[in-house]
Amino acid sequence: MAEKPSSAQMILKWAQTMVDLEEKINQVEGKVQEMERVRNSAKEDIDSFPEPSFTPEPQNTRSMLNQYIRTYSRTHCLHFAFVWHKLYEAILYRKGISVHRRADHKKVSYVQILQDLGMMEYAYNLAREIFPL
Length: 133
Prior knowledge:
The chain is mostly helical. It is 74% helix and 0% strand. The chain has 2 domains: 7-49; 61-130.
């Protein structure tokens, strides 16, 4: 049978374990300090970049409407064309304008009909009303 270590041996073993743990803590603290130094250096580099000298062009109503319809269809898991169809149905119901028939007759896109009629702003506002995000 193995002998039980004496109290002095146990204390010595715990002390050695504590020393080993302190060394590991010091290593980790050193790594953390190095990471903070690198982070601060990177932040200074980023802050030294000049501000962009261009401003993006404002979106036209057609692209805003298209983006809104795409966002709505994605967030509600609906097909993109289905949402457009519902918008055209709402325009037919509220204004009595058949976008589908006019586009088929003129052989242009449905959105082009809205633009020709000057109804892009109306269509955008209607889309925001009937398709709330």
